[in-house]
Amino acid sequence: MGKGGSDENMAAWLLGVNTLKIQPFNLPALGPHDVRVRMKAVGICGSDVHYLKTMRCADFVVKEPMVIGHECAGIIEEVGGEVKTLVPGDRVALEPGISCWRCNLCKEGRYNLCPEMKFFATPPVHGSLANQVVHPADLCFKLPDDISLEEGAMCEPLSVGVHACRRANVGPETNILVLGAGPIGLVTLLAARAFGAPRIVIVDVDDYRLSVAKKLGADDIVKVSINIQDVATDIENIQKAMGGGIDVSFDCAGFNKTMSTALGATRPGGKVCLVGMGHHEMTVPLTPAAAREVDVIGIFRYKNTWPLCLEFLRSEKLYSSEENFKARGFVSRLQGIM
Fold it and tell me: Listing from the earlier edge strand, what are the strands of the sheet with 71-79?
């Protein structure tokens, strides 16, 4: 039986390629610093889809049945004896990664790179697409009254954009190019706007995704080709749309063509941040970029982002207009292209 209720705890288990089944999910014992959360909103990430279609994502391989899901928010049902900051009934957004806090990377504050990280729905760790989960209280962030549970779950993908902007030092004097108008490209657009970027151009091969990007506040959009031979033409069109130097390019797709475009479009002395991981390996023109002192940086997940994400969500900084802020429609728009 499920803890704290008469219903058995159920979850969505990935059993094989394109095979999901709802079946019982036994919860671990509640530790003194843990909370038990009833899930109310769980997003489906690109990694979940990769696992569903191929049983792997990058170097992570599903070798035995696994519960999926890691973008989540819910309501506290029970707290451990040492938990002082949360009580039953609190609405919370969950940060999905549990690091060791003992290794040098954790001690340096870069816990997102912890080699012992236990991350929801990353083999062999089970995820959160379940009735209930048990999670450390310090990774559960109380939602303000004006933030919905759905928005709370969106803190996870938004954290990717926030972490990328921090890594690239985005600010009020940073002109931004975003390559890829999928969900991660769009949250990177939103984060860059919240960090004060004065001009943001976003590119994609899909008209609908570009239209969503425009509604979410992109200053300009550029439809690009899928052919690597068209990189030079695409760069010319992108730079024309920007109307000035591109200080930071975010490659939110991670393909040979998108990275080549980013490296070529970015001004001398600028930065290219690799966010997407479409290709495990890429062949790109690094030498010309190095000759222009274009810095290449990468990101992996995020660290210390939930408080800032919640502050952005409750302010107007993520929104292109007061009308969009009042409508709070970015969640539904992101869901519409996932």
Answer: 132-136, 34-43, 71-79, 91-94, 140-142
- Of 88, 86, 100, 102, nearest to 137 by C-alpha is 86
For residue 317, count CB atoms less than 10 angstroms from its CB and return exposed for 0-12, middle for 13-18, buried for 19 or more: middle
What pLDDT shows up at residue 6? 47
* CA 124/CA 336 separation, integer angstroms: 30
Cβ atoms of residues 74 and 88 within 8 Å? no
In the block, residue with structure tokens 């040492």:
82
Name the pTM for this structure. Answer: 0.92
CA distance 270 to 281: 23
Q: Which range has the worst mean pLDDT, 4-18, 42-56, 155-169? A: 4-18
pLDDT in tens, 293-335: 999 999 999 999 999 999 999 987 887 666 666 556 555 555 5
How high is the pLDDT of residue 317?
82
Lowest mean per-residue pLDDT among 1-15, 38-52, 212-226: 1-15
Closest C-alpha among 247, 216, 179, 171 to residue 318: 216
Contacts of 315 (CB under 8 A, 6+ apart): 194
